[in-house]
Amino acid sequence: MARKTDLRYGTLKYYTESNLIPFEQLDENLTRLYPREAAVERVEIIKSLKKSGLSIAEIRKKIAKQS
């Protein structure tokens, strides 16, 4: 997922922990499974909103309204 979206692993982890990117936890080893199309689309939205100057909190609110 990090390669596909051109994000660092730490950034991807932060976004998932902030509930910005949908994922499923596979097992107790904390392996995360991302629904590929939905997650990639969400990352592109986040990148665009960050580029326009929104904070993570503002992005979270905007995404919550869309869901």
From TrEMBL:
InterPro entries: DNA-bd_dom_put_sf (IPR009061), MerR-type_HTH_dom (IPR000551). It holds the Pfam family MerR_1. Residues 1-65 form the HTH merR-type domain. SMART domains: HTH_MERR. GO terms for biological process: regulation of DNA-templated transcription. Gene3D superfamilies: 1.10.1660.10. GO terms for molecular function: DNA binding. This is MerR family transcriptional regulator. It comes from Peribacillus frigoritolerans. The lineage of its organism: Bacteria, Bacillati, Bacillota, Bacilli, Bacillales.
